[in-house]
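Slide 14.
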Amino acid sequence: MRVARVEVDGRAFWALLEAETSRLRPINAPFAQWAGLRGPAALQALDLGEQRLPLAAARLLPPLEPGGRVFGVGLNYLSHLKRLGSEAPAHPLAYIKPESALVGAEDDIHYPPLTRQLDYEVELVAVVGRPLLDELRASHCLLGYTVGNDISARDAGKQIGRLDLLTQKAMDRTTPVGPWIVTPDELGVRGQPALNMQLHVNDELRQQDNTRHMIFPLDELLNYLDARISLRPGDLVFTGSSHGVGLESGRFLQPGDQVHAQISGIGRLRNTIGAPRRLNAARAKGRLGQPLVP
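Slide 15: predicted structure.
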């Protein structure tokens, strides 16, 4: 099944997307009541409303359950690392994004005033359905998968000569996610999926790969995170990006660019880069006493 987080007339809720009609049926049951179930049991637990809304009547929100956390994983595709002259790390590199960094599948991406090197990264995003506990395979605890574009400020931290993940990965309204969650049974997978990923900028293909090429497979990523922070129903896990990003070529995103990120069997993000915003110099100053961006 496909479930979306939508907004209609100012009200946000989960809905089942009927593939054959492209209509939405509101889900009345609490998220935790159905997110950890599979197959017919999950469908029966949704407590669907009778109303069927056209998809076009709804705004697609990031498919994040209120209170869910957003985790990111980097350095997880060898082809990307090779192009940067690097090797595979010994273990995953992870970070946390705030909910405020997310935007929906068709929303504008903000161009933060603290960067001039805004980059794109199409990624498979795993959605946790129930706690991992003692499950034999961590991926069996997933509700499903969605598409993410882990937009990054590549010049973050250059003035201080250190990695600045807060600026690079967490700025407001920079990370599109969606358009909906597709369950493993809908994809015909159980465990590590093998799905084609693509990202276009203004109709130009920039990224293309398959999720089977991850350095650290999904089960290992989930176990790595859960050993440090117990994963909860509704959490999102970005699983890393492949080669073709702007960091490799120096071709970064510009205001007005149309960015389309898609994963086979799931869906597509369609986002536009917004105009740069100005930031008061006093707010932009770091410890060096100078604005980060002129």
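Speaker note: Residues 218-226 form the longest helix (9 residues).
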